Amino acid sequence: MDIRPNILVICGRNKRRSRTAEFLFKNDSRMNIRSAGLSPKSDRKLQQSDVDWSDLIFVMDDEQPKRVRSLYRGNDIPNILVLHIDDIYEYRDPELVELLLDRINEGIESEFKL
After folding, report:
1. What domains does the chain contain, in order, with CATH numbers?
2. What SMART domains does its record include (predicted)?
3. Measuring CA to CA, which residue among 43, 39, 1 is closest to residue 22?
């Protein structure tokens, strides 16, 4: 049996972008997925256990990898890929869905050859 990678998707407050990604890929047999936010006001705030669980982390902008690394400095952090998706979309917005599908699939395929 193949082991499915654990994918963590992070955005600012886990309300729209990362939650949409989790919704889109939650039944994808290639991976396990979870989402979290960096803000203290996040619906689901990023925890050390999320970072420990993950094999690959996706973030939305160029500043977020720095924030993750500074929050968990000294810990073993998996590769972080930036999706370059601005915080202008609503949850499950069709354009956001298309961007997430394209970019996450591309990242998964390049990292794990799935």
Report:
1. 6-109 (3.40.50.2300)
2. LMWPc
3. 43
Query: In tens digits, what is the pLDDT along the chain, a chain of 114 residues?
Result: 368 999 999 999 999 999 999 999 999 999 999 999 999 999 999 999 999 999 999 999 999 999 999 999 888 999 999 999 999 999 999 999 999 999 999 999 999 987
Tokens 């996450």 belong to 104
22, 9 Cβ separation under 8 angstroms: yes
Q: Decide: helix, strand or coil at residue 109.
A: helix
Half-sphere exposure of 18 (CA within 13 A, CB side): 28
* Beta partners for residue 58, in sequence order: 9, 81
